[in-house]
Amino acid sequence: MTTRVAIVGGTGKLGGIVREVVASEPGFAVHATLSSRDDIALIDGADLVVDASTPAVSVDVVRAATERGINILVGTSGWSTERIALVRPLVEAAGTGAVFIPNFSLGSVLGSALAALAAPFFPSIEIVEAHRDTKVDSPSGTAVRTAELIDAARAEQGPVLAPHVDQRARGQQVDSIPVHSLRRPGVIAHQEVILSGGGETLSIVHDTVDPAAAYAPGIRLALRRAPEVRGVVVGLDTFLDIGIGAPRTRA
């Protein structure tokens, strides 16, 4: 049986990688490739929708897929707890599945997991993330996911130490953790989690240098699992046995 995949935003950078993975993956076929401006009805007849569009239209794509009874895999960034709350009842009522993946890179997922593992041992933690200047949202979904995993891991210790957060230069707090976003040309994706304690600092750094090579394994994994999901799932780590907890839903 072939899983027919409709890719919304399939003409963009991430969408192009998804399209190539789907075309090369046994048991999957590209059903339709849509730009963010195409008629969403082109997803009709698909077994799975992959959303690689833009934050401005992503909610409409999720709703359209869910209303048609089609599971959706969301790779679009910019999803917050509040945005997911808008579609969760719709997904649950329809009995379908919606998978939100902030980052398809296995290395990035492992970096976030390592940060969460170390988080209880350090009182001060900050995140610096950098993406190309064309990225329209900040902080990145990956940074938000990392902060939430850190917060969940520090449930007993409580919030991190973050002095002077009233100053704008101190970054945006996500679950008490200052996040600093850089947007500049020549960068693909970079994240550094800096954990500090008495007399020492631990830095966990991940860089994406080749998006196609970095994202393809994670996209394959998510494609295989997304059709069977029911309800809302957040994070590629939910499909990996890496021993980190599930924080509040946010992508």
Q: What can you see in these coordinates?
A:
- It contains six helices and eleven strands.
- The chain is an alpha/beta fold and 251 residues long.
- The protein starts with a strand and ends in a 17-residue tail after the last strand.
- 32% of the residues lie in helices and 26% in strands.
- The protein folds into two domains: 3-103 and 211-239, NAD(P)-binding Rossmann-like Domain (Rossmann fold, 3-Layer(aba) Sandwich), CATH 3.40.50; 106-208, Dihydrodipicolinate Reductase, domain 2, CATH 3.30.360.10.
Separation of termini?
31 Å
Detail the poorly predicted runs. 245-251
Give the SSE order as H and E letters: EHEEHEHEHEHEEEEHE
Number of helices: 6
Characteristic key phrases:
single chain; 2 domains; Rossmann fold; Dihydrodipicolinate Reductase, domain 2; 251 residues; 26% strand; 6-stranded parallel sheet
Structure described in brief:
With 251 residues, the chain is of the alpha/beta class.
List the helices and strands and how they pair.
Blueprint lengths: L2 E6 L4 H12 L3 E7 L13 E4 L3 H13 L3 E4 L6 H14 L2 E4 L5 H13 L5 E8 L9 H13 L18 E3 L2 E7 L5 E9 L2 E9 L2 H15 L5 E4 L17
Parallel strand pairs: 1-2, 1-3, 3-4, 4-5, 5-11, 6-8
Antiparallel strand pairs: 6-9, 7-8, 9-10
Helix pairs in contact: 1-6, 2-3, 4-5
